[in-house]
């Protein structure tokens, strides 16, 4: 017991350790001292005796520590994409700064000097040397004899910035999620406090339901701003993914938008007919020129051949990102269409709320849906995801009576 109180005092902050006797619930011994705001209500821990004797029903959800919103799109945006981009950035960084990202071959110039120079000042390839037979028309794809006046050079300057660009993209993908977490402020979590647990004392449950009903009745038609901020973050998600595609296309010299279709088309050809687009965008062998003064003071040019093993990783990363970004853009577009329909179609909002509160009577759900605006419906819909179904059923019944002017709730 002494260790328990020590850990309680050590771990919890001071404002949480200030507790007092809970007046409405005999089985709930202590209550955290919180402001009287109806959005920040006290936690009612489940009593041990009832936890041992009560039998939770099969359709009840387990208590959750985090609030659930639209799980699929939020998971894609705030978790999966950010984690993927950060992982790719770390992978490229490890190969770039720990391994050997470039190896150049040239006579009379120290190799470490040539490697550093070509890495800093970029390399180049000849676009006309990507077509033909390897070993006959050119030594390597993009490397061959340069005819003055006929051939042009394509410089590759992106490879030293790939890790930074990927990390910057991860930050941009997290911005809408960060904005929503800041604006949301834990409202749904506080409203659903202790309501996602099926094993809860009747007094505590009744007290929580009453406070929640009073909150909705007093704040009816005043929650649109809360919902529209969430909708704004969804629009930011779609604009963000389009800007990310444009950013990568500009970063790779206009090659990213057609990168995926070209790779698919190449895979369907015979091996001897393939012109690998990955070698065009991410060449493994390039050329580099180094100039220095000779013994007589004249400028000498040294033509070096550089191997870029890092591009083997880069080409696979950007092939995956092309397909991933297309999927994310399509999912986000459908999410925006769905959101627009929920804003413009009250009947759709009723059906969605009816599905979320499937245990409630249709009359109660219809009464609540007709009285609510978009913001009220949005908060109710999110609460339905985070509250135990049986408790949400009772809450919807009490709320419909309250909105109809019936305060004689049991």
Automatic annotation (TrEMBL):
Segments for region (Disordered): 36-65
Pfam families to which the protein is assigned, alphabetical: Innexin
Recorded topology in the membrane: Multi-pass membrane protein
Chief location: other
Transmembrane region(s): 69-92, 158-180, 226-247, 317-341
Keyword Secreted attributed: no
Family matches, as InterPro entries: Innexin
Keywords, sorted A to Z: Cell junction, Cell membrane, Gap junction, Ion channel, Ion transport, Membrane, Transmembrane, Transmembrane helix, Transport
Family stated for the protein in its record: Belongs to the pannexin family.
Function: Structural component of the gap junctions.
Protein known as: Innexin
């Amino acid at each position: 017991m002494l260790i328990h109180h020590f850990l309680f005092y050590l771990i919890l902050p001071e404002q949480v350790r200030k507790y007092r006797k809970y007046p409405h619930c005999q089985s709930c011994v202590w209550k955290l001292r919180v402001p009287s705001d109806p959005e920040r209500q006290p936690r009612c821990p489940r009593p041990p005796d009832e936890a041992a004797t009560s039998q939770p029903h099969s359709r009840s959800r387990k208590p959750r520590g985090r609030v659930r919103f639209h799980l699929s799109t939020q998971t894609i945006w705030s978790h999966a994409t950010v984690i993927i981009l950060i992982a790719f950035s770390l992978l490229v960084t490890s190969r770039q700064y720990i391994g050997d990202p470039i190896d150049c071959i040239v006579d009379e110039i120290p190799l470490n000097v040539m490697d550093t120079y070509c890495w800093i000042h970029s390399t180049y390839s000849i676009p006309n040397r990507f077509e033909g037979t390897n070993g006959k028309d050119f030594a390597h794809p993009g490397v061959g004899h340069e005819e003055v006046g006929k051939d042009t050079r394509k410089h590759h300057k992106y490879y030293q910035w790939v890790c930074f660009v990927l990390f910057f993209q991860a930050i941009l993908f997290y911005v809408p999620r960060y904005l929503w977490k800041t604006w949301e402020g834990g409202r749904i979590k506080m409203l659903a406090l202790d309501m996602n647990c099926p094993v809860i004392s009747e007094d505590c449950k009744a007290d929580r339901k009453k406070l929640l009903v009073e909150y909705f009745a007093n704040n009816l038609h005043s929650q649109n701003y809360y919902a529209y901020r969430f909708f704004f973050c969804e629009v930011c998600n779609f604009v963000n993914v389009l800007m990310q595609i444009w950013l990568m296309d500009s970063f790779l010299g206009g090659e990213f938008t057609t990168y995926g279709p070209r790779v698919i088309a190449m895979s369907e050809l015979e091996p001897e007919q393939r012109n690998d687009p990955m070698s065009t965008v991410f060449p493994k062998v390039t050329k580099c020129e180094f100039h220095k003064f000779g013994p007589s003071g004249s400028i000498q040019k040294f033509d070096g051949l550089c191997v870029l093993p890092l591009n083997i990783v880069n080409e696979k990363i950007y092939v995956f990102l092309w397909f991933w970004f297309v999927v994310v853009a399509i999912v986000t577009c459908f999410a925006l269409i769905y959101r627009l329909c929920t804003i413009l179609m009250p009947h759709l909002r009723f059906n969605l709320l009816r599905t979320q509160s499937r245990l409630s009577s249709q009359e109660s759900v219809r009464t609540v849906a007709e009285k609510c605006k978009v913001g009220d419906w949005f908060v109710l819909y999110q609460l339905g995801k985070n509250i135990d179904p049986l408790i949400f059923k009772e809450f919807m019944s009490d709320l419909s009576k309250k909105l109809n002017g019936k305060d004689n709730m049991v």
